[in-house]
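Hey team,

Sharing the Aminotransferase class I/II-fold pyridoxal phosphate-dependent enzyme run so nobody has to redo it. Sequence (373 residues) first:
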Amino acid sequence: MKNERILLSSPHMSDEGYEQAFVKEAFDTNWIAPLGANVTGFENELADFVKTGHAAALVSGTSAIQMALKAAGVGKDDIVICQSLTFSATANPIIYQGAIPVFVDSDEETWNLDPRALKKALEKYPEAKAVIVVHLYGLSAQLDEIISLCEEYDVTLIEDAAESLGTTYKGRYTGTFGKYGVYSFNGNKIITTSGGGMLVSEDEERIEKVRFWSTQARDKARHYQHSEIGYNYRMSNIVAGIGRGQLKVLNDRIAKKNYIHEFYKRELSNISQISFMPENDWSKSNFWLSAIILDNIDPNYLMDELEKENIESRPIWKPMHMQPIFEEYDFIGTNIAEKLFETGVCLPSDTKMTEEDLYRVTNTIKRAIANAN
Ligand SMILES: *Cc1c(COP(=O)(O)O)cnc(C)c1O
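Structure output:
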């Protein structure tokens, strides 16, 4: 089939049918709802994979960020420092909690939270309750510097690792460095449950508390007794079954994403107008999405050329401090995030892509750049 659409990142179930086997087990035992073996299994297996203590399976990464903020004691009018270059779901939960975001720039070495700008933000807002760092596209932030600043100012570090499941920083998985880590299993992520998220922490008591809040905060009583506001945020046993199956192929997906990134580098790195995402010897990325930076070429031009060939591409995330809904909030930094947004393009990184698909992408880019010159 010629010119079938090539996607950025779409669901990729195992060839072995692991996901269906776990879901079938849920049907066979009638554990359709509420919780059940798949939820506990998925929590334990994910915690084992990333080598952390405890995990709570929730309906989304977004709800996991909100629960992390709540568990950190973030409430009305508290300051939360948040990486600006990210997807809005990182920042929205700050508003859900009635708190006030302060956005911080990225650095060129990681594309993530710039420790120098974070230091300035903490000097200006020493009362901040939490810091949210993101590991965009699977690239790891400079965790050592960020952790020591959070310790110095006694703020809780939350890692939005929605895009970086499987990425390591100095040999340890991202998402396990902060007091709380968040993963997403949305349809476009490296593994998916059709929709879902996970909150991880070494603090068993806090994770237990999140499980309590996210199942309507029912006190221990026969009747319905509530002394706290609850949420309906728990992952279902069916969805968790998909997650257990997907975990079995996570390493394969990481390997393929790395292969895709290497392919693009090999084919495109001799084009002088193209540069690649930063790589650091202290981190191993899952390369959830491969992104490039264009020099003197309009990203919209390249994206249009790709679209003509039925190839999906996207700009880099538009920073939060540039979003109409967040424009009233403070921003600390210069123009790094803005420059990345204005010059970057995310390339198809779908793990189902064939060699032919990959060449279709790179040949289209080569042709477009040659015609632009
Ligand atoms: C996908 C994503 C989220 C939200 O996760 P959902 O499971 O879709 O709610 C949060 N932050 C980042 C950086 C993401 O990419």
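The mean pLDDT is 97.

Ping me if you want the raw files.
A.
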